[in-house]
Amino acid sequence: MHVITQICVLFLWMHTVTFVTSIDCTLEQFINSGLYDSNFDTSNLESSYIGGKQVRVGCNVGFSGFFKLICTDDGWKRSVGGVCKARSCGHPGDAQFADFHLEIGEDFVFGSKVMYTCHKGYQMVSRINFRTCLAQGWDGAVPVCEAQQCPVIRVENNVQVIGDPEEANYGNVIRFSCKLRNQILEGPAEIYCDENGQWSDTAPICKEVTCAPPKIEDGYVREEKPVYQEHEVLDFACDHHYRRSDGIPSKCTKLGTSAVWSPTPLCEPIKCKVNRLEGTTFDPPYKNLFSPGETVRVICDKKYWVSTPQEVSATPTCLNDGEWTFRPICKEVTCYDRRQSNMDYWQSSRWWSTPTLGDTREFTCSRGYKSRGGARSVTCTRDGWKPDPACQEITCDREDVPNTDIVGDNKQKYKLEEQVRYVCKDGYEGSFTRTCGENGWNKGWSERCTEIKCQVKLFQHTDIDRSTSEYKSEYKYNERVDYVCKNDYEGSFTLTCGKAGWIGNQQCTRKQCEKLDINNADLIQNEKQSYNQGDRVQYACRNDSNRRFIITCEQGVWTGVQKCEACSKPDVAHGFAVEINGTLYYSCNAGYKLSSKGWWGEATCNDGKWSNLQQCIANNRCGEVPMIPNMEVTPVRGRHQIITVTCKEGYRAQIDSLTCRGGKWDTNGKLHREICKPIQSLCKPPLKIENTVVTTSYQKEYLSGNSVTYRCRNRYTIEGDDTITCEDGQWEKKDIACTLYCNTEAKQWRVIDNKDKHMNGSVIKYSCTTGEEDEGTATCIDGKWIETVQCEASTQGQ
Q1: How far apart, in whole angstroms, are the C-alpha atoms of residue 510 and residue 487?
Q2: 599-631: string of b/e by CB count within 10 Å (b at 16+)?
Q3: H-run or E-run covering 642
């Protein structure tokens, strides 16, 4: 108990001492000290603390750390821990097709802000494009980027699309081409979807391959057109001293997706070129290109030639087309090294070298040929092998023999052993043959032609016709003698003097009458094919057996001939007829019809025959050919009744034939006027011109090539050409007019110009015939004279 009392007293004493000596630490002191950090949370701290007190300081929201203070006599001291550090949120998260960056802060800690940006070609679909680091971590969600999408592309049906034109995203490419080979694109061949969701260009269209006229440097397009079609050739020319760089014509050509001129029409300066070859030198020596008009001297070595084999130097001129007047090249003088066809032997070179100037070759001639001047060799010269020809053909010149003709191969020269046959001309007899030999013609012993003659020949009942033939005792070859029959004989004949004598037969016959056929009459007595002088023949009319008559043969002619004109009642096959007052009316039985239109017809008796009497044909047969405009009517052929369609000149048939089907003519569905159509357009009637008539019949239509002629009415005269021609549906354009004219017949005038007609507007000078000496002028106006001096009427005879 005593001990406890002592302890209590000690404690009270110590407490008293402490209370008296302790110093407080305030919150304000802490905030103003170097220990304070703005991230400390002091909201829960007291305003002051007693000495020796330890205080734990918390961190603001979003920050973390551990920090203790102790209150000492010297103020606040740090016990343990450090400052508050911002709380980390970790990685904010990657967004597809996007990048991010720290907008606020330098690390992913509390308070920092991350901003997201979509890649090129993508757009932000999230409402917020950033995230903020909070105490609980990153707020919101990772933003979303979607690709930019371009609008749907619409193209025409002839455009081919490669790619997706309806759902295209950024970077997608669409390519275009034309479906038709003869079309090209107008516009881009491909477009792409850009980063803004827009197409880089508009869709193209396909159009026909055409080319615009090109701009040609140093040239021009002839008859330039605004547009040229595919495969069309460009007609262009180059300026003076220029020429086309390519000899191939330039055509409008499809190349890939565009139209170009191929080859490109270019003009280049005209130059002539020289090439330096062996055996050739030039003056000037150091120039190889020359302009038109310039010259160059070409000098050849000894065995060479230029222009012609005889020349060793020449001066060609450069022409406007870039060519030399002749090639400026020296060529070595050479000769052909081969045996000619008229040689048996030719000395050939062992090494097959071409003979040059001065070389020689030995030869022998073939049979039928001989060497010229007896030469055995030829020499190569600038004019070829000499002598030339080395072998001459052995020939004979044609010889003409009087009164002969050469038969067979008639020519000016004949080869060795060829034969010529001579035949005596008409009027001569004989023939012979000659053969061509080495020394000329080999002739025979009997080469003679004898003249042919005929002695005169006389016949009974004939005389030589002295009006056409001369009477001679002897006639030459081919002479004709005409004979005429006399007395009771008739006829004439001709004899011709031939190689074997007279040619021809005597043809005199007694005069006779041939059997006579009389319409509607029968021969009833003395029937035979021919009758002599005085023979009589009796006939009877068929429709009146009591009517008979006799005809007589006199001098080869029948006398007493009569006519039988009555018509008998006809037998109408498949029909019937009724005669009333000389007219026959007829129709067909059931199942038949007339070959013409209508169901009945009528006929009249003309010279014993019924005219216009038609046949009755079956209903399934076709009658007369239909009247088709501008068609030539041809007969019906074949049992199937087919008519070939043949149109008149200037028209063309649209079908080949008309066929009878079921009793009607089948025109293949065409109207009659459509079967023959004009080849060229028709002209309507020509225009009416005042005071004129047309001197041809009126037609509704005129063929191409038809002409019409105008004529003026009385007291009018035509001006210009009076005829116009239809040309493919149009009349020629001509100024045709009829104007009144004036004459001076009724005037008391003396006129120097005595023309019958004076045209409208003509002016003439005149003087009066009644004695006045005054002269005047008159002008023809609309057919009347307008006079300046009036002439009084003549008073003579009053």
Answers
A1: 9
A2: eebbbebeebebeebbbbbeeebbbeebebebb
A3: strand 642-644
Ramachandran class of 608: left when φ > 0, alpha when ψ lies in -120 to 50, beta otherwise: left
CB–CB of 244/269 below 8 Å? no
Closest among 268, 266, 270 to 319, alpha carbons compared:
270
The partner residues of 113 in beta bridges, in order of sequence, read 104, 132
Cα(794)–Cα(798) distance, rounded to whole angstroms? 9
Residue 772 is predicted with a pLDDT of 57
Query: CA torsion 689→693→696→699, rounded to 10°?
Result: 50
Are 149 and 125 in contact by the 8 Å Cβ rule? The answer is no
CA within 13 Å, CB half, 738? 17
Query: How far apart, in Å, are the Cα atoms of 693 and each of 233, 724, 741?
Result: 52, 13, 18
CA distances from 524 to 521, 536, 545, 550 (A): 9, 11, 11, 10
Largest CA distance in the chain: 227
6, containing H or E segment? helix 2-21
Read off the pLDDT of residues 533-552 as tens digits, 9 standing for 90 and up.
788 999 887 766 677 889 98
> pLDDT digit string (tens) for 441-499?
888 777 888 888 999 888 888 888 888 888 888 999 989 999 998 877 788 999 999 88
Nearest one of 255, 257, 281 to 205, comparing CA atoms: 257
Q: Given phi > 0 = left and psi -120 to 50 = alpha, else beta, which region is 110?
A: beta
**Neighbouring C-beta atoms of residue 372, cutoff 10 Å:** 15
Residues 478, 470: Cα–Cα separation, whole Å: 14
Phi, psi of 702 (to 5 degrees): -130, 135
DSSP conformational letter for 28? H
Helix then strand then coil, % of the chain, to nearest 5: 5, 45, 55
- Residue 263 to residue 253: CA distance in whole angstroms: 9
The answer on pLDDT for 15 being more than 60 is no
Instruction: Evaluate whether 773 touches 767 at the Cβ level (below 8 Å).
Output: yes
Residue keyed to tokens 């990685």: 91
Nearest alpha carbon to residue 583 among 538, 545, 613: 613
Please classify residue 471 by burial: count the beta carbons closer than 10 Å to its beta carbon, then call 0-12 exposed, 13-18 middle and 19+ buried: exposed
Give the chain's end-to-end CA distance (angstroms, integer): 215
pLDDT digits (tens, 9 = 90+) for 673-732: 888 888 888 899 999 888 899 988 888 888 888 899 999 988 888 888 889 999 888 999
Query: What is the tens place of the pLDDT at every residue in 425-441?
Result: 888 888 888 889 877 88
CA distances (Å), 30 to each of 47, 62, 72, 593, 603, in order? 10, 22, 12, 145, 157
Per-residue CA distances from 550 to 249, 511, 555, 558, 765 (Å): 95, 20, 17, 10, 84
Beta bridge partners of 369: 393
Mean pLDDT of the 775-779 span: 82
Identify whether the C-beta of residue 224 lies closer than 8 Å to the C-beta of residue 236: no
Half-sphere exposure of 373 (CA within 13 A, CB side): 8
Task: Determine the residue type at 126.
Answer: S
Pairing of strands 646-647, 664-666: unpaired
Q: Which two tokens stand for residue 610?
A: 């019924």
Is pTM beyond 0.85? Reply is no
Residue 219 near residue 146 (C-beta atoms within 8 A): no
Is 683 exposed, middle or buried (CB count within 10 Å of its CB: 0-12, 13-18, 19+)?
Answer: buried
Decide: helix, strand or coil at residue 539: strand
Do the bridges between strand 548-554 and strand 272-273 make them parallel or antiparallel, or are there none, so unpaired?
unpaired
For residues 263 and 270, is the Cβ–Cβ distance under 8 A? no
The pair phi, psi for residue 729, each rounded to 5°, is 90, -5
Cis amide linkage into residue 626, ω under 30° from 0: no
| Helix (H) or strand (E) run with residue 107 in it | none
Cα separation, 76 vs 49, whole angstroms: 10
